[in-house]
Every structure is written in structure tokens, then in C-alpha cells.
Specification:
This protein has 348 residues and is α/β, with parallel strands linked by helices. It has 2 domains: 243 residues, QueA-like (3-Layer(aba) Sandwich), CATH 3.40.1780; 79 residues, QueA-like (Thrombin, subunit H, Beta Barrel), CATH 2.40.10.240. It has 6 helices and 17 strands. The strands form 3 sheets. The chain has a 9-stranded mixed beta sheet with strand order 2-1-17-16-14-3-12-13-15. Strands 5-6-7-10-9-8 form a 6-stranded antiparallel beta barrel. It has a two-stranded parallel ribbon with strand order 4-11. Helix 5 crosses helix 6. It is globular and about 65 Å long.
Length: 348
């Protein structure tokens, strides 16, 4: 399948630069893949499309303030690093800029020298392996010294760092937020639970690979990045109960969808407590085993994320919906509006 199948013209002014004042005030484009139609609503009304016995699946990863500005100890050169993956206690793979100034053996200091890092390995594409030493607790120092690593298409400064976290963010480890979850408030989640809709949590730590463009013409040649995930026994039980009772599973975000499909593929359609790395690449004509409905934001042209959406809703319907969203000036990407793809009646 050619990459240009998933291309469309997106005016730059539709890329949301700041979050709305209220999390749940965004618009909602509802897609009925069975009727091959769509209509417009408000996100606050999303509960109208779920019923008792369904299960809403949320990714509880928490974004690290992973951008650090350091000074090279011997030369005083300024170097910016972005934490990517914790490989072992106090040992991180990072993206360094400029990487050429951070060879193996070099030491960086941050803040008032309470946090230091020594380069113990060099990798391609500006990546380095750093060994950290610090006073106190690493994550406390990170909260003091680090900055939120906003996506490259957001140019404005975020005044409230918590607006790039979901209200249910718990497990530290992401380089980017699972943005479909940003719309929910505590009150809305409480209302959903009161309606008899189960809420299951899983964890997928979003890596920077989520922003990596597809550079091949044939999408089947694209190498998907790997991300770390965890599904608890409690969540697995909730998901199995939902399927067995005829309820629908609504994945919140492509990150939740990727975990659910990874686990379902490994367990022949069932859910078991598990953790590991997934590089699952979902694109048409992929057949979903776990996900019935999907809540997601609006994605980049030619991205793996719009391919996943197209696999569930159908490419033609997805692109028609996107065309109408652009015409009606929906807000796109991380701080943008939402799309809800409804289950079909024959989803099991």
C-alpha cells in the first residue's frame, strides 16, 4: 500500500498550539463505520455512545520532564539532552544536541551540580548512553530541573505543565503524552463509572518514535518503533469479562489500542497479565481482535497513527471524515479535538 494513500492537505493554523481552558470542552467527530457515516458532537457527550457492561481502556503512563539543559564539565559547552529509555537503574539512553560535543567519557552537570551524567556509550542519530549520579531521589531532581518535551509541531510554551498529562497519569516513563486521554476530567470518569461502564488501565510508555515520519513509499517496508507496555491481572480480568458478557471495548488512544491488540495476538484473542515491548504496526486491512471502539485525536498526514485509524474505520471513511473536520476547522494533534469510532453490531 502506497504511503500517499494516507496524505491530505492540513492548514497549519489548525494545529492546536495550546490546550483549551477546559479539558472536556473539545469537539467530537463521531464515526459510524457500519453505516459509513459520521456526525459532529461535543466530547462532553461521549458517554451517550457507551452503555453499562462496556469497558473504557486508559493508558496511565506519565510523561517525564525529560528535557534537560546541561553544561559539559571540562569545556562549559551547553548541551541539551532528552531522556528516551531507562536501560538500567540510573542508566538512560538519551538524545543529545549537539551530540558531537558529548563523546564517551564526557561529564555533564545540571543545575547546582546536584545532578551529573557521564557518557558511557555512543549510538547513531545523536543518541548517547548516560550514567547519572545525584543527591536525593532522581525523579525529584528531574521534576526540578527538567522540562516537558512537547511535540515538535507545538511552538508555544506551555504555562501549566500538567495540561500535557492526563488526570489519571501514574506510571512515569513517557517521552510524549497519550493525547486522546487529555480530554477526560475526574468528574467525567466518575460519571462513566456510575453508569456501569468499567474502566481498565494499562501502561504503554510513548517513545519519540511516535513522531518519526514514514519515509518509505510502500508502508509495508516501514520498521515500527518499539515501546514498553504493561497489562495487569486486574485489567485482563475486566477485559475478558467484558468480551464474555457481550460488552464493547473502547480503547482511548492508539497507544491503548496497540497494547490491546498486541496482547490479544499473543493470547489468541484473550487477555492475560503481561509486559514487554511491542512494535505492532497496524494498517489496512488489519483485523482487530480486541478493540471494538476507538477514541483518538486527529493525526498527521502519512503517519502510522492515521493508518491505524484507517484500519479500524476504513481508509475512505477516515479520509472523508478528516476532510470534513478540516472544512469545519477542527483542532488537530495533541491539544486538538477528538474522533470516536463506534463499534459495529457484530463486534465480539
Amino acid at each position: 500500500m502506497n504511503i500517499n494513500t494516507f496524505d491530505f492537505d492540513l492548514p497549519k493554523h489548525l494545529i492546536a498550539q495550546t490546550p483549551l481552558q477546559k479539558r472536556d470542552a473539545s469537539r467530537l467527530l463521531v464515526v459510524d463505520r457500519q453505516a459509513k457515516s459520521f456526525w459532529h458532537n461535543k466530547f462532553a457527550n461521549i458517554i451517550d455512545y457507551m452503555q453499562a457492561g462496556d469497558c473504557l481502556v486508559l493508558n496511565d503512563t506519565r510523561v517525564l520532564p525529560a528535557r534537560l539543559h546541561g553544561v559539559k564539565k571540562d569545556t562549559g559547552a551547553n548541551i541539551e539532552i532528552l531522556l528516551l529509555t531507562e536501560q538500567a537503574p540510573d542508566r538512560w539512553e538519551v538524545l543529545a544536541k549537539p551530540a558531537r560535543k558529548l563523546p564517551k567519557g564526557a561529564t555533564l552537570v545540571f543545575g547546582d551540580h546536584v545532578l551529573k551524567a557521564t557518557c558511557v556509550g555512543e549510538k547513531e542519530q545523536g543518541k548517547r548512553i548516560l550514567e547519572f549520579t545525584y543527591d536525593g531521589v532522581f525523579y525529584e531532581q528531574l521534576e526540578k530541573l527538567g522540562e516537558m518535551p512537547l511535540p515538535p509541531y507545538i511552538k508555544q510554551t506551555l504555562t501549566d505543565q500538567e495540561r500535557y498529562q492526563t488526570v489519571f497519569a501514574r506510571e512515569r516513563g513517557s517521552a510524549a503524552a497519550p493525547t486522546a486521554g487529555l480530554h477526560f476530567t475526574d468528574d467525567m470518569l466518575e460519571k462513566i463509572a456510575q453508569e456501569g461502564i468499567q474502566i481498565a488501565y494499562l501502561t504503554l510508555h510513548v517513545g519519540l518514535g511516535t513522531f518519526r515520519p514514514v519515509t518509505v513509499e510502500n508502508i509495508e517496508d516501514h520498521q515500527m518503533h518499539a515501546e514498553n507496555y504493561y497489562l495487569s491481572e486486574k485489567a485482563a480480568e475486566l477485559l475478558n469479562e467484558t468480551k464474555q458478557s457481550g460488552g464493547k471495548i473502547f480503547a482511548v488512544g492508539t497507544t491503548s489500542a496497540r497494547v490491546l491488540e498486541t496482547v490479544a495476538e499473543k493470547s489468541q484473542g484473550k487477555f492475560t497479565a503481561t509486559s514487554g515491548w511491542t512494535n505492532i504496526f497496524i494498517y489496512p486491512p488489519y483485523e482487530f481482535q480486541a478493540v471494538d471502539g476507538l477514541l483518538t485525536n486527529f493525526h498527521l498526514p502519512k503517519s502510522t497513527l492515521i493508518m491505524l485509524v484507517s484500519a479500524l474505520a476504513g481508509t475512505d471513511l477516515t479520509l472523508r471524515a478528516y476532510t470534513d473536520a478540516i472544512k469545519k476547522e477542527y483542532r488537530f494533534f495533541s491539544f486538538g479535538d477528538a474522533m470516536l469510532i463506534l463499534p459495529t453490531k457484530d463486534d465480539q
